[in-house]
Amino acid sequence: MPHSPTSILVTGGAGFIGSNFLLRTVPRYQDVRFVNLDLLTYAGNLLNLKAIEGAKNYSFVHGDIADESLVTRLFVEHAFSTVVHFAAESHVDRSIIDPLAFVRTNVVGTATLLDAARRAWEGGERDTRFYHVSTDEVFGELGDTGAFSETTPYDPHSPYSASKAGSDHLVRAYHDTYGLPVVISNCSNNYGPFQFPEKLVPLMIVKAAAGEPLPIYGEGANVRDWLHVEDHAGAIDLILREGRDGKTYCVGGRAERNNRAVVEAICDLVDEVLGRRPGTSREQITFVTDRPGHDFRYAIDPSKLENELGWSQAHTFGQGM
Ligand code: NAD
Q1: How far apart are CA 93 and CA 100, in angstroms?
Q2: Ligand 1, closest atom to CA 189?
Q3: Ligand 1 atom having least distance to the Cα of 14
């Protein structure tokens, strides 16, 4: 059964992917009300949402997804039909330094939202849906071949991926135990506008432009699949409405690159944009000690999403960058 949202709680909408989702959907669905609940941690920035801040169908609430009384009150006040849950601590390096912050937001915060939805939607007569935005990192790492799919067993290695895996399991448990209508998507690495410059792509752009060293873990051989954030936002919009209840969808760009190749591509673009001699920025690349538990390779097989829901991406890696 397709889902038709009327009133959506978007969590973490001031972050990278959440803001791209709101910029796409708020103008597109004028009869749907959007409430953005965001704690505005270092990663959240309301300037990302400048284009929609005055929209009649959009409002912002500053608060914590783990605040049970706030979340309960919002469900009563706004009669949400839908939750699209982006809010998370999302940076692997930070999860190694402060793992409990990740457990609190990603696990306890998700459980708080699920339970509020369960109580608000009890009886099941309304058209409701809880959409959980997750990552391919829950699947662990691949060798030289193969790709993650919806049936890949979970095998997380960092506190970040373990906390996201925990939240995915809770979402499924609420579906299986209480019949909560849920969908989950697990996506590969995103790049594009409004990403906080601690992540590889914006960090390297900023450092390359400033003439600073460009640190790459190990030998830069770790492979990730890359997807433009607007294509991810489009996939979420589609899965939210057309995805099947209780199902998982893997989202990816069929664009595997090792970290070194990504940084070199950025260097060449920065040189071109700044009118520098070709190769200048590549001279800034340095290799630093690898981080612990660094997964070697991720790849996504998005064929279920392509075949079942007709999704396709608009950006290739080269053109998107
Ligand atoms: P982000 O770090 O850019 O944004 C996270 C947002 O959540 C911020 O606005 C922050 O203020 C907010 N937030 C954090 N803790 C909160 C709390 N306790 N209560 C309310 N708000 C809180 O993250 P992102 O890159 O936009 O990722 C969004 C989601 O997508 C995450 O769940 C992440 O696991 C998932 N994901 C990210 C990627 C990627 O490449 N960035 C890929 C796949 C999946």
Answers
A1: 13
A2: 40
A3: 9
Q: Any idea what DSSP says for residue 113? A: H
Alpha helices by DSSP H, listed for the chain, are 16-28, 68-78, 92-97, 99-102, 110-120, 159-178, 200-210, 229-242, 259-274, 303-309, 317-320
Q: How far apart are CA 110 and CA 104, in angstroms?
A: 9
Q: How many Cβ atoms from other residues are within 10 Å of residue 39's Cβ?
A: 19
Convert the pLDDT of each residue in 30-69 to its tens digit: 999 999 999 999 999 999 999 999 999 999 999 999 999 9
Q: How many CA atoms lie within 13 A of 303 on its CB side?
A: 5
Average pLDDT, the chain: 97
* Cα–ligand 1 centroid distance for 286 (angstroms): 28
pLDDT band at 293 (very low <50, low <70, confident <90, very high): confident
Contact, 232 vs 261, CB < 8 A? no
Sign of CA dihedral 100, 104, 108, 109: negative
Q: What is the CA(38)–ligand 1 centre distance, in A? A: 10
Residue 163, token pair as written in the block: 């906390």
Instruction: Name the residue with tokens 């309304």.
Output: 126
115-154: buried (b, 16+ CB within 10 Å) or exposed (e) per residue?
A: bbbeebbeeeeeebbbbbbbbbbbbbbbeeeebbbbebee
110 C-beta closer than 6 A to ligand 1: no
From CA 295, how far away is CA 52, in angstroms rounded? 38
Q: Which residues are catalytic?
A: 136-137, 160
- Residue whose CB lies within 8 A of the most ligand 1 atoms, among 20, 41, 300, for a mutation test: 41
In whole angstroms, give the CA distance from residue 44 to residue 284.
29
Closest CA to 120 of 161, 72, 165: 72
- What is the Å distance from ligand 1's center to 12 Cα? 6
Contact 144, 178 (CB under 8 A): no
